[in-house]
TrEMBL record:
The keyword Hydrolase applies. Keywords: Hydrolase. Pfam families: Lactamase_B_3. Residues 7-198 form the Metallo-beta-lactamase domain. It comes from Halobacterium hubeiense. GO terms for molecular function: hydrolase activity. Belongs to the UPF0173 family. It comes from the Archaea. This is UPF0173 metal-dependent hydrolase HHUB_2247. Coiled coil: none annotated.
Length: 240
């Protein structure tokens, strides 16, 4: 599995021959990538805020996955009709990837507008094997937490049953978890490697990522913290 961070919460996840793009928002200071250089098979949206869906129009003709409310909005506003609406707890098979939509605690107005809801916000657990209650030591699994606060489902459901090897957690504070809560999340998730995301895009979420590294160490978590540069790719199969 290959994981590429394009800044903010935008990730490309390559599972076998299948390419997924999460939360396309390329107008951020961490990336130099032109959105049209990325050619995903599927686009996953965690919620409807502008800094997560700003570039969806660059992917017309691509299959989208989102909550039913957000999928409907894509059709109405962007003429994106190839969209699968799903909800929390569901798993869909997308090529070589199995994608499970999980809880995130956040707001979810369309484009941060008032009175227009995109349903529940979400995170995604992406694996090369179908999730079951039987542990699979050979599987590779990535958890994108979405925009969220700390919640115990990370400890009680995602860690023991979905078993992520790598996790990307928001650390910018103000709108999501900050470094210390994100560090607790990493500890609860019992992953091998953790990536910070959703930081430094605009002033309220500017942080020193060293704070996150120190907070993870303070929990006693054995996870390796990888602070990626924008447009950098991490190969999960190498050492994890």
């Amino acid at each position: 599995m290959e994981l590429t961070w394009f800044g903010h919460s935008t990730w490309r996840v390559e599972v076998g021959e299948t390419t997924l793009l999460i939360d396309p928002f390329f107008d951020n200071p961490k990336t130099d990538t032109d959105p049209e250089e990325v050619d995903p098979d599927h686009v996953l949206l965690t919620h409807g805020h502008a800094d997560h869906i700003a570039d969806v129009d660059r992917y017309r003709g691509t299959h989208f996955v989102a909550t039913p409310e957000l999928a409907g909005y894509l059709g109405d506003q962007y003429d994106i009709d190839d969209a699968t609406g799903m909800n929390l707890g569901g798993t869909v098979e997308l090529g070589d990837a199995y994608v499970t939509m999980v809880r995130a605690d956040h707001s979810n107005g369309i484009d941060t507008g008032y009175g227009t809801s995109a349903g529940m916000p979400a995170g995604y657990v992406i694996s090369d094997t179908k999730p079951t209650q039987v542990a699979d030591e050979e599987s590779e699994t990535f958890y994108h937490a979405g925009d969220t606060s700390l919640h115990t489902e990370m400890r009680d459901v995602i860690a023991p049953f979905l078993e992520p090897d790598a996790v990307a957690v928001p650390v910018g504070d103000h709108f999501t978890m900050g470094p210390w809560q994100a560090a607790v999340a990493v500890d609860w998730l019992d992953a091998d490697v953790a990536f910070p995301m959703h930081y430094d895009t605009f002033p309220p979420i500017e942080i020193d990522t060293d704070d996150f590294v120190r907070e993870v160490e303070a929990t006693g978590s054995p996870a390796d913290v990888e602070v990626l540069d924008g447009d950098e790719t991490f190969h999960l199969s190498e050492g994890y």
